[in-house]
């Protein structure tokens, strides 16, 4: 039977990525596996007949000395060729290894190897669709596969063999229906995994075991999500006294440290919940804020039979709450906590739509792989939340097709409806700010019978409300939309609909012709309107001699005809009307249509829905000129019109936040909490923007000064003043200071900028100087990857530096020794030309206010507080907060920044003396 198939698992190390450019193999390992056991291993260094580049030596730890006594490839060619005979070739990224090997075999006169290949990257993507990364080292770590030294052929080949076996075992645990669906689609994949799937099917069918724990819907196997039990009231009381709290916490958390402020916060929240009151709590790092609100919330929910809602800003914190903090709460209370996690509808999969797509067989490779990943994932997911999937670029586009966009009563199983149903039986509902804000416009309010709301990361509620009301126009998105519909003869959607209309003879030709004419007029009109915008944008850029490639132009700087834009809306509506008429005529006549035709009709309906969204956006951006909104164009001079986008945001969100909380205030408690909610001299800066009444108290809870004993603040007094030197000179001084600090702390530094341009120039200068060549430098906007990816990379290496702008000033956690210093290059004032800041400043000035004291300074002080918050995440942490901006010492407002810091040692020194003091402190801190 197939399991006794011979697998040759191969890994190569080479002098570079291109055999065409003369790169050669320096090490090869081949592991022979049969019946899922390793039978033999062949491994050897190979002399590449050239020098090994330094970066390859760094990566692989293979030096010229290692290969000095090895023979060239010709000496091993025949043995390698023989080992591969009758085997399936397996490698992690098989295309690379096999192509390289074939080239080397050709070069020494051997015939090309022929046979099947399996790529474990592709296989792992299908079998483990939610893995964090598909790099061999990352997979090995996640799946507990031993891998002592990555990028060494012998260790990598053994780990790849184990990975193949783990994939096989996992495959056998999937339901038969899932394996059948995968097998049916496996022939579109790049590697030959169909034989594996066939072998797994053979085993499954021979065992005929009842497969419980699955729902079968739309011919798919979906994991049965856990059902919530009916709530049971607790016999236990909220621990009101210090003694009671200590008794319950020390019993279950052996390492629990008593923090009076934590107990104080618990009592404030307990009282607010009982009395249905509103309160604001600024709780600094080190208090244990999460447990402070979870414990009273749990007891309140259990004893009063009313749910508590907890809303937070980032998905990251939501996941952490859901899986780590709730487990801790259950441990403390000794009771089961019924929790429901609710996200916005578009986070969930539309299984019905996915099933429709499965009926059609013309997908690209990216789509075929994405479909296979989703099929496996459905048999594993408990939530149906698409963010669990790890997909490449093409796969991400596919996800957009299967998001749940509108709520219809599902004929079969639906994750979104399930999540809402589960929330009815929960003690605690967790959601994010965006989902809570969506309740403003949702027809059916989801959040009823809630006894209290905890708004965590409350300062971010303002940002979430702005994003909720934000409108974005993108030139390429519109062009993509038009491209999906197309015209007669170009094999796009209209063409396919027309073909079905001809085949079924149900749609008058006149209607088809009119629909196409409407579409043609619409596309021409769009191009006309865009041309007017682009000519004006280019004229403004010329007049202002702006140098940077990426540019921002306020919409108010342009002259454009609103009537012209309104005509565009009318043409869109005309097309939507005729497209809907075609759809109605299909549904009025219940004609026999094939699944493929049904899919095209569903696509037509989907794109009509997308056009309706777009026409509403167009009207809000270009036609309805509202005074309390501001809008701006963003573009890249190198790619006009492709890069053109227009963003429109509200100037105020206070009214909409007030509207959301007005009914809640009448019947439930509201607790706003965050690490940063106040600034010196303007305590209610955030509270006022949230529309919270003046009589709502603010409790400021600071961890004891002993918590910060590991922190030092250094102000460098001899940095240049940016006003008096050129930007180049300023950047040179900054780059020099940063390299001195990084070398003193041996890396593990965050360097925080306020300008992406200055960050890029500083990093390039440091790279050119080669002064930090032995450090890993990760820079936002320069190094490829998302914010979380950069952070993970930074944490992997001990000699590393992370350069970040705005989004790294907060919400980033590097516990313990992972972070030695935070370097503040410039005080975090918003750039004067940043659109939101510019619009708000102009409005404040027009109303007779001082924009600096009312807006610029409090915003900067808040960010500064958050920047310091990155440094000390526990009482054992130590780290230096280093400020290179001399304004903190020379300007009168500097003291506002310093008074926002907790009570820590602050030293003002020249760079030379600061580096010395930093070195002494750094070397002595662990003694």
CATH architecture assignment of the largest domain:
3-Layer(aba) Sandwich
Q: Mind describing the biggest β-sheet? A: 7 strands, parallel
What's the CATH H-level superfamily name of the largest domain? P-loop containing nucleotide triphosphate hydrolases
Helix percentage range = 40-55%
Could you give the distance between the termini? 64 Å
Shape, per Cα inertia axes? globular
CATH topology of the largest domain: Rossmann fold
Radius of gyration: 31 Å
Can you tell me the residue ranges where pLDDT is under 50 for at least 5 consecutive residues? none
Helices, by number, come to 34
Tally of extended strands?
A: 25
Relative strand content: 5-15%
Q: Give the overall average pLDDT.
A: 85
Provide structural commentary.
This protein is of the alpha/beta class and 927 residues long. The protein has five domains: 2-203, Ribonuclease H-like superfamily/Ribonuclease H (Nucleotidyltransferase, domain 5, 2-Layer Sandwich); 259-337 and 427-469 and 671-702, 3-Layer(aba) Sandwich (Rossmann fold); 346-425, no CATH class; 472-650; 705-924, P-loop containing nucleotide triphosphate hydrolases (Rossmann fold, 3-Layer(aba) Sandwich). Strands 10-11-9-12-17-8-18 form a seven-stranded parallel β-sheet, with helices on both faces. A hairpin with an 8-residue loop joins strand 15 (629-636) and strand 16. The N and C termini lie far apart (64 Å). 36% of the residues are buried.
């Amino acid at each position: 039977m197939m399991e006794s198939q011979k697998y040759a698992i191969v890994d190569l190390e080479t002098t570079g990525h291109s055999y065409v450019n003369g790169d050669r193999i320096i090490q090869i390992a081949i592991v022979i596996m049969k019946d899922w056991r390793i039978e033999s291993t062949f491994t050897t260094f190979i002399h590449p007949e050239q020098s090994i580049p330094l970066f390859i030596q760094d990566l692989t730890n293979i030096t010229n000395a290692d290969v000095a006594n090895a023979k060239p490839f010709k000496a091993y060619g025949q043995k390698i060729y023989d080992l591969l005979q009758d085997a399936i070739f397996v490698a992690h990224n098989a295309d690379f290894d096999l192509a390289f090997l074939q080239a080397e075999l050709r070069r020494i006169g051997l015939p090309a190897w022929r046979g099947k290949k399996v790529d474990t990257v592709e296989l792992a993507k299908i079998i483990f669709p939610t893995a964090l990364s598909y790099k061999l080292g990352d997979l090995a770590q996640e799946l507990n596969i031993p891998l002592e030294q990555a990028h060494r052929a012998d260790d990598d080949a053994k780990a790849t063999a184990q990975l193949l076996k783990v994939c096989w075992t996992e495959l056998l645990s999937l339901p038969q229906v899932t394996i059948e669906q995968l097998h049916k689609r496996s022939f579109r994949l790049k590697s030959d995994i169909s034989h594996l799937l066939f072998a797994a099917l053979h085993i499954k069918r021979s065992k005929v075991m009842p497969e419980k724990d699955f729902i079968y819907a739309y011919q798919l196997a979906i994991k049965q999500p856990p059902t919530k039990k009916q709530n049971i009231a607790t016999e236990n009381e909220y621990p009101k006294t210090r003694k009671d709290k200590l008794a319950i916490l020390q019993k279950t958390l052996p390492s629990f440290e008593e923090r009076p402020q934590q107990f104080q916060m618990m009592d404030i929240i307990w009282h607010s919940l009982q009395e249905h009151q509103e309160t604001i709590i600024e709780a600094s790092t080190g208090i244990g804020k999460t447990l402070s609100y979870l414990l009273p919330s749990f007891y309140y929910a259990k004893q009063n039979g009313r749910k508590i809602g907890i809303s937070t800003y980032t998905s990251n914190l939501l996941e952490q709450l859901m899986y780590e903090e709730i487990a801790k709460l259950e441990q403390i209370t000794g009771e089961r906590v019924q929790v429901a996690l609710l996200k916005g509808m578009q986070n969930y999969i539309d299984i019905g739509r996915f099933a429709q797509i499965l009926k059609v067989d013309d997908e690209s490779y990216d789509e075929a792989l994405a479909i296979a990943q989703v099929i496996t994932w459905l048999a594993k997911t408990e939530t149906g939340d698409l963010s669990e999937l790890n997909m490449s670029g093409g796969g991400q586009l596919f996800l957009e097709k299967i998001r749940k966009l509108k709520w219809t009563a599902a004929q079969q199983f639906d994750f979104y409806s399930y999540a809402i149903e589960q929330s009815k039986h929960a003690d605690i509902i967790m959601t994010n700010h965006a989902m809570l804000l969506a309740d403003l416009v949702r027809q059916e309010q989801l959040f009823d019978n809630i006894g209290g709301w905890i708004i965590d990361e409350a300062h971010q509620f303002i940002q979430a409300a702005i994003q909720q009301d934000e409108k974005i126009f993108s030139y390429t998105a519109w062009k993509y939309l038009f491209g999906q519909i197309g015209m007669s003869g170009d094999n796009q959607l209209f063409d396919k609909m027309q073909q079905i209309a001809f085949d079924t003879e149900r749609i008058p030709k006149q209607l088809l012709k009119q629909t196409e004419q409407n579409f043609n007029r619409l596309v021409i009109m769009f191009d006309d309107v865009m041309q007017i915008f682009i000519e004006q944008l280019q004229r403004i850029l010329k007049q202002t001699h702006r140098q940077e490639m990426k540019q921002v132009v306020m919409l108010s700087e342009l002259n454009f005809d609103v009537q012209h834009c309104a005509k565009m809306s009318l043409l869109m509506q005309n097309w939507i009307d005729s497209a809907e008429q075609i759809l109605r005529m299909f549904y009025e006549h219940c004609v026999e249509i094939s699944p493929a035709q049904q899919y095209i009709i569903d696509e037509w309906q989907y794109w009509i829905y997308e056009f309706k969204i777009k026409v509403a956006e167009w009207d809000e951006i270009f036609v309805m000129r509202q005074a309390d909104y501001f809008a701006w164009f963003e573009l890249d001079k190198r790619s006009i019109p492709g890069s053109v986008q227009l963003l429109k945001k509200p100037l105020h969100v206070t009214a909409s936040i007030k509207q959301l909380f007005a009914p809640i205030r009448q019947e439930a408690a509201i607790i706003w909490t965050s690490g940063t909610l106040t600034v010196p001299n303007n305590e209610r800066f955030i509270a006022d923007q949230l529309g919270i009444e003046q009589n709502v108290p603010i409790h400021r809870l600071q961890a004891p000064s002993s918590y910060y004993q590991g922190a030092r603040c250094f102000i460098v007094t001899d940095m240049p003043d940016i006003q008096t030197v050129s930007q180049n000179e300023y950047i040179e001084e900054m780059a020099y200071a940063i390299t001195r600090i990084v070398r003193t702390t041996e890396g593990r530094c965050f360097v925080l900028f306020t300008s992406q341009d200055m960050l890029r120039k500083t990093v390039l200068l440091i790279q050119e100087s080669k002064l930090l060549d032995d450090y890993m430098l990760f820079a936002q906007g320069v190094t490829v990857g998302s914010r979380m990816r950069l952070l993970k990379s930074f944490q992997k290496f001990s000699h590393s530096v992370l350069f970040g702008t705005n989004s790294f000033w907060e919400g980033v956690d590097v516990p313990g020794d992972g972070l030695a210093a935070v370097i503040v290059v410039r005080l975090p004032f918003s750039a004067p030309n940043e659109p939101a800041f510019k619009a708000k400043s102009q409005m404040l000035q027009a109303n007779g206010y001082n924009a600096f004291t009312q807006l610029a300074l409090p915003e900067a002080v808040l960010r500064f507080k958050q920047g310091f918050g990155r440094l000390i995440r526990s009482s054992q942490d130590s780290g230096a907060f280093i400020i290179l901006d001399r304004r903190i010492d020379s300007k009168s407002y500097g003291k506002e920044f310093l008074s926002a810091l907790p009570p820590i040692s602050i030293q003002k020194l020249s760079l030379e003396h600061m580096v010395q003091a930093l070195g002494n402190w750094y070397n002595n801190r662990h003694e």
